[in-house]
Amino acid sequence: MAVSVTVYTREDCHLCEDVLDTVGRVGADYDLDVTVVDVDDDPELREAYGERVPYVFVEGTPKFKYRMSEQAFREAVTAADD
C-alpha cells in the first residue's frame, strides 16, 4: 500500500525544491502517494503556513519543516509502511 506524503510548498522556494527532489529520489524506491500543495493557492493555507514551508506530512503526521535529510525521510516512510 502506498505511503501518503503531502508537501506544502510555494513558488520560488529553494528549500521546497530541495525537499521535492528528495521526495522524488526516495519515491523511486518506495510506493509513495505524493501530493504537492502550493500554499499561495489558498488564502487559509497561506495564512496558516506563511513562509513556514516546505512542510512535509507522512501519513497525515507532520514530520519535517524547512529541511529534511534523505535518510530521515526514508526512515519516516519505512516506519509508516510497517
The fraction of residues assigned to DSSP E strands is 25-35%
- Give average pLDDT, whole number: 95
Task: Please indicate the count of domains.
Answer: 1
- Give helix and strand order, one letter per element, not per position: EHEHEEH
- CATH topology label: Glutaredoxin
Structure description:
The protein has 82 residues and is of the alpha+beta class. It has one domain: Glutaredoxin (3-Layer(aba) Sandwich). It is globular, with a radius of gyration of 12 Å. The chain starts with a strand and ends with a helix. The relative contact order is 0.26.
Lay out the secondary structure:
Layout: E1 3-9, H1 14-27, E2 32-38, H2 43-49, E3 55-58, E4 61-65, H3 70-81
Quick take:
The protein is of the alpha+beta class.
Task: Give the tags.
single chain; 82 residues; alpha+beta; Glutaredoxin; four-stranded mixed sheet; 3 helices
